[in-house]
Amino acid sequence: MADRDMQIDAKNYRVNVPMLDGAVIVIRAIRPDDQERLHEHFEGLSEKSVYFRFMGIRRDLSPQDLKHLTELDFKNHVGLAATLTENGRERFIGVGRYICGADPTRAEVAFAILDGFQGRGIGTLLLEHLSLIADANGVAEFEADVLGENRQMLEVFAHSGFESHRSLDSGIVHLRSLTSKLSF
Ligand SMILES: CC(C)(COP(=O)(O)OP(=O)(O)OC[C@H]1O[C@@H](n2cnc3c(N)ncnc32)[C@H](O)[C@@H]1OP(=O)(O)O)[C@@H](O)C(=O)NCCC(=O)NCCS
Predict the structure, then answer these.
(1) Residues 133 and 167: beta-carbon distance below 8 Å
(2) In this predicted model, what pLDDT tens digit does every residue of 130-151 receive, in sequence order?
(3) With bands split at pLDDT 50, 70 and 90, how would you rate the model's confidence at 94?
(4) How confident is the model at residue 152 (pLDDT cuts 50, 70, 90)?
(5) Residue 4: pLDDT band by 50, 70, 90 thresholds?
(6) What is the CATH number of domain 10-181?
(7) Ligand 1 binding pocket mutation candidate from 27, 111, 113, 152 (most atoms within 8 A of CB)
(8) Among 28, 33, 110, 160, which lies 20 to 30 A Cα-Cα from 70?
């Protein structure tokens, strides 16, 4: 766990993380030149993962979506990618981001990990690094709306200390936590 009091240059965020299988992944800030990598990542997600991420059917990301999701201000919209480089080619295996609404001290978090890489701790890692940046950037609270059937996402949030409030009508669970209280 990194030191929560340190200064963080979110736009140039980059850390190497060794995984249990020996591979080293990089958790880094998403850049404007990542449009193709992000598109490829979206196309690699199963229908179910897309449904869980976007809470509905989504066939593709438009050029406007790709611009919005890669040209980030790293203040109100912070995005991190988990990347793997093989044979000199870097690809996204997971993406996590937070976006502030009208209140800049609260942000909504969302994640999408390629199906073949789910359940290996990458979602948890992205949440951890996003929370460090948020804490340093004055974002005091994270929140998320998650489909009640999305067990993996609910477990990741529960393990790190989020509290949940289930809305029985919609099947959506609303979760929130102070970013300073999250633990990994
Ligand atoms: C939901 C999602 C982001 C989770 O990411 P992930 O990398 O698969 O999650 P992790 O590997 O970090 O954690 C999941 C597993 O670790 C366990 N885990 C997480 N933190 C843990 C901890 N501190 N201690 C013990 N177990 C823990 C979870 O219980 C879960 O167990 P499982 O392997 O039996 O499923 C990912 O599955 C995904 O992208 N799904 C599709 C899109 C989606 O649902 N997005 C969420 C919309 S907000």
Answers:
(1) no
(2) 999 999 999 999 999 999 999 9
(3) very high
(4) very high
(5) low
(6) 3.40.630.30
(7) 152
(8) 160
Pocket of ligand 1 (CB under 6 A): 49, 52-53, 110-113, 118-124, 144, 146, 150, 152-153, 155-156, 159
Which protein residue has the closest C-alpha to ligand 1 atom 29?
155
Q: Whose CA is nearest to atom 44 of ligand 1?
A: 52
Site to probe by mutation for ligand 1, drawn from 84, 125, 156 as the one with most ligand atoms within 8 Å of Cβ, is 156
Residue 86 main-chain phi, psi, to 5 deg: -130, 130
State the distance from the centre of ligand 1 to the C-alpha of 119, rounded, in angstroms.
5
